[in-house]
């Protein structure tokens, strides 16, 4: 395999050690047997299908939960399950995960087996209630567990301390997918024709949920995403995914992993944030073209509403940050933001946006109806936000009603009456966990490209060796360029025509969301930029474009 030296270096820096690791074929997926409890869970699930027990899927209200729920429903029907159904808690009225209330609702619908997807590892009370009602619970989850586990029939989670599965970064939909692989193997052991069910049929859903949940793209996850992208590009995917891509103006044939993350996932997430995730699930489940289009348009409308709400909340946050600076105070190591009118469904996005702006962990809170503040946290590399919150819980348990999550994102509930005390203990925990140098943002570049490497062919090769994403970052290069022309497009985006210092060629470039107080600046003749190579498709023509991530006047 012939690769430019710079691309070889890019891949080596990201841990690729052999050509085989670039061959993202399904045969290289890790075997399900390494997942603790997965074969036990598969046997129970198979027995339920064969005895025609009614199975309830309990999902989550985000895109990972929606794809996990859809995957399980579609597959169980194909395996011959009798009328499987799903229940997903409403973010605003039910809280998170498998609660006793949800168990009772499932029992009322005749559930004889409950399977959780993308939740359940902290559902102690829910599992206890199910056991009391003689309903077995299979938990499939990927969130970090506590030292004690719920007393479920089986608990499949790669982050279990006693689990030796080689890929601990699976999204919730990835764990569900592996349970289905184990179920198919169970049928093979029974000599059943159902062993011919093709689980790969639903890899489009696995790819979408994996990208949406921003889990690290280790080798195993890259295979799952790549195989799902291939199905979508070929048009062999759920009609709902195609409809959402069409509404967002994306050509499925040119689809990249980032397109799923920036176009399809936000529209599905918008349902869970502002209304009911059932809209997103039904859009993914349905084969009725008219219904799919109607639901996709509803999701698109909700996403526009979400963007408007987010914009208003970001303005509130900006005023808060400005006031801190006017008062002469330095920003704390972790920011806690709260306004009584903020929307519960959008605080996670707000926390992420502010984190990008100030480069430190941010927790945004919204008022719930029961005297509790719901918080959503987003962190920076090197600061494990769930561990920070757990430390606050250890210092003052009464200030944290519930919490869970990952290193980079977490959720929590704080009694409103203890919010000030919570912030004090959070500041104490921040001192223990965060060093000042961790709050200095550093852009890591893959170096400078030669004029010959600034080409459409190089951009296509980079695209070919994706998917790129969390933990397998898309290559970022830097260099000096002459500015041939510059102008603002779309209100706040800087469109540039650049020229390498020692070459006559010119290259299109765009920097999104620039500071309009600084740009355009017609006095600037040279810039130092950090950029990614991009294939720009326009009117059936392809050309090279530089996507500018950072720009300095040189």
Automatic annotation (TrEMBL):
Residues 446-550 form the RecJ OB domain. One of its GO terms (molecular function) is exonuclease activity. SUPFAM superfamilies: DHH phosphoesterases. Residues 285-319 form a coiled coil. InterPro entries: DDH_dom (IPR001667), DHH_sf (IPR038763), DHHA1_dom (IPR003156), RecJ (IPR004610), RecJ_OB (IPR041122), SSDNA_exonuclease_RecJ (IPR051673). The keyword Nuclease applies. Residues 339-431 form the DHHA1 domain. Signal peptide: none annotated. Keywords: Coiled coil, Exonuclease, Hydrolase, Nuclease. Residues 54-210 form the DDH domain. PANTHER family: SINGLE-STRANDED-DNA-SPECIFIC EXONUCLEASE RECJ. Belongs to the RecJ family. This is Single-stranded-DNA-specific exonuclease RecJ. It comes from Aliidiomarina maris.
